[in-house]
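Sequence, please.
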């Protein structure tokens, strides 16, 4: 079992969790950040990396992915450890310190927890196919990082939204073959993309298998070899392939946190907004996941809540010490000499 120890465990690497790394670092606290996704950035990365955000103060506009990159850069001098592709699941408390067990078996021991879980742990919606887990990460994928990994491969893409349509268009140029499987002939994609799909189909660069639904997966020597699909009249077709990409949207899961004894429900986590502490001492919550009267679900609000939680976390960790409030202009940051 991999064991980690830190001052503060941050659950969620969305924009609010990342800015909390900085706020905690400024007052001398180390943090570890866990996220279910394999990349940092929460909603900004998973849902709108290219969209411009207009209401980050002092930025006329900044795309979701660019905001995350800058937040990570700002946090970097405090050496946060990112534990990605795993969920925070079980919480235990002993002698005033917390242990949180992750879905991959690793355990983080910490003095405080800051929950920045947004709308819940993100994960792919899996199609209900037997044994799909055994191919995940090797020949079944839910996210695509680069088109190159599919060069000269035979690909099946399943789904009817923007992601499925966009990747079908992109991969048709690099893969040996692309078959797009969807329950309906119509796609919920931008008009230009739909047109491109039709052009690629006419040019023989793409096969649209619709209306069809996936029935089962076949393998050879442990590797995916074919996807079996069925049409409305019950006829089955076997599509030979090297990889299956499934785009059925993102699932959000807050259920693990609902067992932490902090009053978490589908409506979020109630907090005292003077400290952002939950009903359990030493456990704070910030960002979209919190609920209090007047809560605004904005990135800006989450940044502020992170600063409040950081100061309250320090007071919790060092109850006998007196702290003097310092501006960042006085404190500076690692790697930069402070201005006298
Ligand atoms: C299309 C769109 C446009 C938007 N535009 C704006 C805008 O213009 N301005 C603005 O201010 N806001 C905007 N928002 C809202 C903004 O994105 C959210 O307020 C912000 O992402 C909240 O940040 P967060 O860090 O609290 O949570 P999130 O970004 O939701 O991140 C939470 C992270 O926690 C992880 N997580 C949760 N539970 C666990 C667990 N148990 N274990 C491990 N990981 C876990 C999740 O996987 C996720 O990555 C927009 C949202 C959308 C969808």
């Amino acid at each position: 079992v991999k064991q980690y120890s830190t001052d503060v465990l941050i659950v969620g690497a969305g924009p609010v969790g990342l800015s909390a790394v900085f706020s905690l670092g400024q007052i001398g606290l180390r943090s570890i950040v866990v996220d279910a996704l394999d990349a940092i950035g929460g909603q900004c990365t998973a849902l709108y990396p290219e969209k411009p955000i207009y209401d980050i103060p002092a930025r006329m506009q900044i795309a979701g992915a660019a905001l995350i990159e800058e937040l990570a850069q700002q946090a970097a001098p405090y050496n946060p450890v990112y534990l990605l592709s795993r969920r925070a699941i079980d919480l235990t408390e002993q002698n005033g310190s917390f242990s949180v067990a992750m879905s991959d078996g690793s355990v983080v021991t910490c003095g405080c927890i800051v929950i920045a879980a947004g709308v819940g742990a993100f994960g792919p919606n899996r199609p209900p196919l037997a044994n799909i887990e055994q191919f995940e990460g090797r020949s079944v994928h839910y996210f695509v990082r680069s088109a190159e990994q599919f060069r000269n491969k035979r690909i099946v893409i399943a789904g009817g939204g923007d992601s499925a349509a966009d990747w079908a268009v992109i991969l048709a140029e690099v893969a040996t073959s692309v078959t797009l499987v969807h329950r309906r002939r119509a796609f919920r994609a931008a008009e230009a993309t739909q047109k491109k799909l039709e052009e690629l189909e006419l040019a023989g660069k793409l096969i649209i298998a619709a209306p069809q639904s996936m029935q089962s997966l076949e393998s050879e020597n442990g590797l995916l070899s074919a996807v079996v699909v069925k049409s409305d009249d019950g006829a089955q077709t076997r599509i030979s392939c090297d990889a299956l990409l499934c785009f059925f949207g993102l699932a959000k899961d807050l259920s693990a946190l609902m067992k932490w004894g902090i009053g978490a429900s589908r409506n979020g986590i109630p907090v005292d907004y003077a400290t952002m502490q939950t009903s359990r001492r030493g456990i704070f919550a910030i960002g979209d996941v919190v609920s209090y009267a007047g809560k605004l679900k904005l990135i800006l609000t989450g940044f502020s809540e992170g600063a409040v939680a950081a100061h309250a976390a320090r007071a919790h960790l060092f109850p006998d010490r007196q702290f003097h409030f310092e501006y960042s202009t006085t404190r500076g940051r690692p790697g930069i000499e402070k201005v006298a």
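Residues 299-317 form the longest helix (19 residues).
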